[in-house]
Design goal:
Elements: H1 2-19, E1 42-60, E2 63-68, E3 72-77, E4 81-88, H2 93-100, E5 109-117, E6 135-140, E7 144-151, E8 154-157, E9 161-168, E10 171-174, E11 179-186, E12 189-195, E13 197-204, E14 207-213, E15 221-227, E16 230-235, E17 239-246, E18 249-252, E19 262-269, E20 272-276, E21 282-288, E22 293-296, E23 300-302, E24 308-309, E25 313-314, E26 317-323, E27 328-336, E28 339-343
Parallel strand pairs: 1-5, 1-7, 2-6, 2-8, 7-9, 8-10, 9-11, 10-12, 11-13, 12-14, 13-15, 14-16, 15-17, 16-18, 17-19, 18-20, 19-27, 20-28, 21-27, 22-28
Antiparallel strand pairs: 1-3, 3-6, 4-5, 21-26, 22-25, 23-24, 23-26
């Protein structure tokens, strides 16, 4: 239901944006062949709190975001109009008093909006992503990014939180420390070297996550797509969920399974391959249908205690039992494909 709602919202947003666009005809005076015009980059900067929230909504163009030790947001774009609008957050009385006594002092902003427009005369309409251009954004490492982009690639690194919605283009996020929430209609999603709670959601998207861990005990990891593969390497949360409708799920390097952990890997049409530590203990629930098979390198003791299973189970079937001294729950499922459980 969440994925369906995301698709509906994304296309509604696209429809609203199209309402404010204009179409330009052919240029009657093209540039001479030997003329080379270089887009001029406009730059703006604003003093912000270290944990500021930065909003950017863009129709098309590439977006590059970098975290730094600076206490300001700095943005460059090859757009006709570029604005930074800030809203100051509350300060302790002592700090507020000191700031008011300093001539020319600018109170750092807590919430920042980056506004890009294709014309100097455009009126800003909240919630409409009408501008186009390539944007380079620098912000504090402890800040949160809220980004909506219709068409273009996204590259983000070294910030606390990334909340991204994209319709068409690849999204790559690295070294976020608190949360990554990435939704994409068409394009790949890549997350690496990060920590915190994670939700990766795509429609026509391959999802790849590597070296991702929880920042706190409540942090969960979820990666789901409709058409595409999901590949997880060294994702060590105690709650991990990965799935696709059409594609494969491949999981390696989970590390030691949490005793009360939950690990769910599912596909409708494709294979699921999971590699776990050789000494892992867990309760297994594996289901296949439509000619698939279940194969495992582990000795699985059935719940009845009557037998140990290691050979592949062919055809529609289910393998339900325990490995080692129990503990975590590992759930594998494929309607049209095979399940493989391997030792590392």
């Amino acid at each position: 239901m969440r994925l369906t709602a995301f698709i509906v919202n994304a296309f509604l947003l696209l429809t609203l944006t199209a309402h404010g666009q204009t179409t330009t005809g052919a240029n009657p005076n093209p540039n001479p062949p030997d003329a080379e015009i270089e887009e001029e980059m406009t730059e703006r900067a604003l003093s912000v709190e270290p944990d500021a929230v930065v909003n950017l909504c863009l129709e098309s163009g590439s977006v590059v975001v970098r975290g730094s030790d600076s206490r300001e947001v700095r943005v460059r774009a090859d757009a006709a109009r570029l604005e930074l609008r800030g809203e100051a957050g509350a300060r302790p009385p002592a700090q507020a008093s000191q700031a008011s006594q300093t001539p020319g002092a600018q109170k750092p902003s807590k919430n920042v909006e980056v506004w890009v427009s294709d014309s100097e005369d455009d009126e800003r309409v909240s919630g409409i992503c009408a501008g186009s251009g390539n944007v380079e954004l620098e912000m504090p490492r402890g800040a949160t990014l809220i980004l909506k982009l219709h068409n273009g690639d996204i590259d983000v690194s070294d910030i606390a939180e990334a909340h991204i919605q994209s319709l068409n283009g690849d999204t790559e996020v690295r070294r976020v420390t608190r949360a990554a929430d990435i939704q994409n209609i068409s394009g790949s999603i890549t997350l690496s070297d990060s920590s915190g709670r994670v939700r990766l959601q795509g429609v026509s998207s391959d999802i790849d996550a590597s070296n991702v861990r929880a920042a706190g005990p409540a942090d969960q990891f979820s990666a789901k797509t409709t058409s595409g593969s999901v590949t997880l390497d060294r994702v060590t949360h105690s709650r991990v969920e990965a799935g696709t409708v059409s594609g494969d799920v491949n999981v390696t390097g989970t590390g030691a399974l949490a005793r009360d952990g939950s690990y769910d890997f599912k596909t409708f049409s494709g294979d699921v391959t999971v590699t776990l530590p050789a000494d892992a203990s867990f309760k297994l629930n594996a289901i296949v249908a439509s000619g698939g098979e279940i194969s495992t390198d582990f000795i699985v003791k059935s719940d009845t205690g009557a037998q140990s299973l290691k050979e592949p189970a062919h055809g529609q079937g289910r393998l339900h039992g325990t490995v080692g001294s129990n503990g975590a729950h590992v759930n594998l499922a494929s309607f049209n494909g095979s399940l493989r459980l391997k030792k590392r």
